[in-house]
């Protein structure tokens, strides 16, 4: 008897070891698959946007569906491994569960239409805030819906319900699919278990759901009958005492931090990506196109990114962080896109150098990486990365993000141009630039009535070369060093004109202009009217 128990235990341990080996193997190859998947998915979407022929379009859609299936498997493996390692830290908060579930529900609408499935969502919680972890719920809903669509035939139905029962938030996903035999129902939550029905699947999705529900201190129930379908019910506790203190967010904390935990909560969905509005954005700052530096050691991906964005931006490229640093010492750049894992100098070290260097600290840095784990994302964000994008990524979304970043910057320049005020906290996004701008303002104000104050003296007092001062002020304000001096002086002139105590001639000398006529001409150029007219307003 003891020998049998010992053999059972050894068999169980051996099976567990095999499962762990499977997970490690699949997770390792999952990392390697992300870059080639990017080089398939991104150009494929470009082709779909351009191809008009029906047959060609259908073939490309077939490729896209199967590529997305592979991506879904990769992401499931990554998420499952994170759940196993306890990386999915639970953070519950009172929030609108209806909106979270609806977002995932809508992602499957096109699939429901394609399979002619009667697809419905019922809830009375539209306006109620309930207690749950947003990231957990996204993953749970996505995996349950993915499972339901996998086993539900054309013309059948899938129904999602969300409600409160006793002291639990209940999420229910019901289908009229093939159903699960009674003797198999306990096994469907085991890792790598697949029903013997010839359907494709990884055997990970339901196991991941089960693990996430456990971590959420909840429970999962299954009702199923062969030929009639299945009902999966998730119960998430609403009593705050169930959760540890560190698992509760008070609402003032930044919930967005949770977003780094998941590889991709909605990766199974193949949607028609909305094309960003690219009109009137290629020419910025008086006809100058934004300059993007792409740092990527994979030559194919680097060339693909360069070719795909050449219509919008000026592109520079480097094969590693060290090459990028050398280039940044010589070139003006508006935004950097960098891989994380690279030889010589990786993306994290490059980002740290950029953000700690006065010449470059204003430049946004977007990290692209096959490493989607939370620790890598946080490492990048902690050294100052402005965004962290996991491979494979959508080229159109990347382009849209870059365009939005450049738009935001140039709108700040426009506001700066249309006001006499210079407000460092509104013009900068880091302390180094803010301190530099405050120092620059103080130096100009100290030399307010100095008619011989030049950009050379300005640079000396800033402990910078004249060219570096020009480039830095241009990057922060969109204007040159001499324009910056004029702006500070005209701001002071406007204040003096409003006071009405001094003549235009007196004010011109007080703000550093040796002739009233030159002062009046420059004033009109910057302010839009003569000093005498401004004083009368």
TrEMBL record:
Domain HTH araC/xylS-type: 438-537
Xref: SMART domains: HATPase_c, HisKA, HTH_ARAC, REC
Reactions this protein catalyses: ATP + protein L-histidine = ADP + protein N-phospho-L-histidine
Domain Response regulatory positions: 291-406
EC code: 2.7.13.3
Domain Histidine kinase: 28-240
Residue list for modification 4-aspartylphosphate: 339
Keyword annotations from UniProtKB, A to Z: ATP-binding, Kinase, Nucleotide-binding, Phosphoprotein, Transcription, Transcription regulation, Transferase, Two-component regulatory system
Example GO molecular function: sequence-specific DNA binding
Record-given protein name: histidine kinase
Organism: Prevotella heparinolytica
């Amino acid at each position: 008897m003891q020998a049998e128990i010992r053999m059972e235990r050894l068999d169980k341990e051996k099976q567990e070891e095999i499962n762990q080996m499977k997970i490690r193997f699949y997770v390792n190859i999952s990392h390697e698959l992300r870059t080639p998947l990017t080089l398939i998915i991104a150009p494929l979407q470009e082709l779909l946007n351009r191809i008009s022929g029906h047959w060609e379009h259908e073939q490309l859609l077939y490729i896209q569906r199967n590529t997305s299936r592979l991506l879904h498997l990769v992401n499931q493996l990554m998420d499952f491994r994170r759940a196993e390692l306890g990386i999915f830290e639970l953070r519950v908060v009172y929030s609108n569960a209806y909106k979270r579930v609806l977002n995932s529900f809508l992602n499957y609408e096109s699939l429901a239409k394609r399979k002619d499935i009667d697809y419905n969502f019922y809830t009375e919680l539209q306006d109620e805030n309930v207690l749950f972890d947003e990231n957990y719920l996204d993953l749970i809903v996505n995996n349950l819906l993915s499972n339901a669509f996998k086993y539900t035939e054309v013309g059948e139905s899938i129904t999602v319900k969300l409600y409160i029962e006793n002291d639990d938030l209940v999420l229910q996903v019901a289908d009229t699919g093939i159903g699960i035999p009674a003797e198999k129902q306990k096994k469907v939550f085991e890792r790598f278990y697949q029903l013997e029905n010839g359907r494709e699947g990884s055997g990970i999705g339901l196991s991941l759901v089960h693990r996430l529900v456990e971590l959420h201190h909840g429970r999962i129930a299954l009702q199923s009958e062969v030929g009639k379908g299945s009902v999966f019910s998730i119960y998430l506790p609403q009593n705050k005492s169930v959760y540890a203190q560190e698992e509760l967010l008070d609402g003032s904390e930044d919930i967005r931090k949770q977003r780094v935990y998941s590889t991709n909560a909605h990766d199974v969905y193949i949607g028609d990506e909305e094309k960003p509005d690219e009109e009137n954005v290629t020419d910025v700052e008086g006809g100058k196109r934004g300059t993007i530096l792409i740092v990527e050691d994979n030559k194919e991906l680097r060339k693909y990114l360069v070719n795909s964005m050449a219509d919008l931006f000026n592109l520079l490229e480097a094969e590693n962080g060290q090459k990028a640093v050398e280039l940044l010492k010589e070139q003006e750049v508006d935004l950097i896109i960098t891989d994380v894992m690279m030889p010589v100098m990786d993306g994290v070290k490059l980002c740290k150098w950029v953000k700690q260097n006065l010449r470059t600290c204003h430049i946004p840095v977007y990290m692209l990486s096959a490493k989607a784990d939370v620790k890598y994302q946080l490492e990048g964000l902690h050294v100052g990365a402005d965004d962290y994008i996991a491979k494979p990524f959508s080229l159109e979304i990347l382009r849209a993000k870059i365009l939005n970043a450049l738009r935001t910057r140039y709108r700040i320049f426009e506001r700066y141009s249309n006001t006499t005020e210079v407000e460092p906290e509104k013009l900068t996004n880091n302390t180094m630039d803010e301190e530099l701008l405050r120092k620059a303002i103080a130096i100009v104000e100290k030399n307010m009535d100095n008619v011989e104050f030049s950009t050379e003296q300005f640079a000396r007092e800033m402990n910078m070369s004249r060219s570096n001062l020009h480039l830095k002020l241009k990057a922060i304000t969109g204007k040159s060093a001499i324009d910056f001096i004029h702006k500070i002086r005209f701001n002071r002139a406007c204040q003096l004109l409003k006071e009405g105590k001094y003549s235009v001639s007196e004010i011109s000398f007080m703000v550093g202009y040796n002739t009233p006529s030159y002062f009046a001409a420059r004033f009109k150029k910057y302010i839009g009217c003569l000093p005498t007219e401004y004083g009368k307003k």
